[in-house]
Specification:
single chain, 204 residues, alpha/beta, seven-stranded mixed sheet, 5 helices, globular, nucleotide-binding, Probable GTP-binding protein EngB, GTP-bd, magnesium
């Protein structure tokens, strides 16, 4: 897939104020400071589309971007540590879960995992919650340029083994580097394939 256009649409916390659910939609979420904004900017090849920060928890709203005028990329607040109050984090969790459970045009949730780390309980818990709710998701391992491929592969394998304690089959996985723009095309190809299915009218 060639990204020809990527434009900001809206930011809010109210699911009933989101864009009409007429186009396929893909949500990106991960633990705070996982490199989500950098990945979104690299995927869309548009620097500054998603706001990056040295401080975890920069994203605090549901951010919609329309890509090629045919699908939505949604930047969700990170879970886990952030320099904000417990009350704010609780509010984030409420509207994030409401969004994930009620958004009818949501095709897939891309869960970002830091490839440099051993499996983190907070990531595993979130994946298990998605599984319990029957929500489709895939895993994007980030920051592959920060260490050797061997180390990244080892951590990905550990994460897979941890998930297999709860899942019969582990979702599709991607290893990426935003800085070196590695592993991005397979993600876009997967989205493209899902979009084609979304556009096919149901058999009457």
């Amino acid at each position: 897939m060639l990204i020809k256009s990527a434009e900001f649409v809206c930011s809010n916390t109210h699911v009933d104020k989101l864009p009409d659910p007429t186009l396929p939609e893909y949500a990106f979420i991960g633990r705070s400071n996982v490199g989500k904004s950098s990945l979104i900017n690299a995927l869309t090849n548009k620097k500054g589309l998603a706001k990056t920060s040295q401080k975890p928890g920069k994203t605090q709203l549901i951010n919609h971007f329309i890509i090629n005028d045919t699908w939505y990329l949604v930047d969700l607040p990170g879970y886990g540590y952030a320099q904000t109050s417990k009350k704010n984090r609780s509010e984030w969790e409420k509207f994030i879960r409401k969004y994930l459970l009620s958004r009818e045009n949501l095709q897939c949730i891309f869960v970002l995992i830091d490839s440099r780390l051993e499996p983190q309980k907070i990531d595993l818990d979130f994946c298990c919650w998605l599984g319990e709710k029957g929500l489709p998701f895939m895993l994007i391992f980030t920051k592959a340029d920060k260490q050797s491929i061997v180390k990244s592969d080892q951590n990905m394998a550990k994460f897979k083994r941890a998930l297999l304690k709860w899942f019969e089959e582990v979702p599709t996985r991607f290893l990426t580097s935003s800085e070196e723009k590695v592993g991005l095309d397979p993600i876009l190809e997967k989205i493209d394939a899902i979009n084609l299915d979304f556009m096919v009218p149901p058999v009457s």
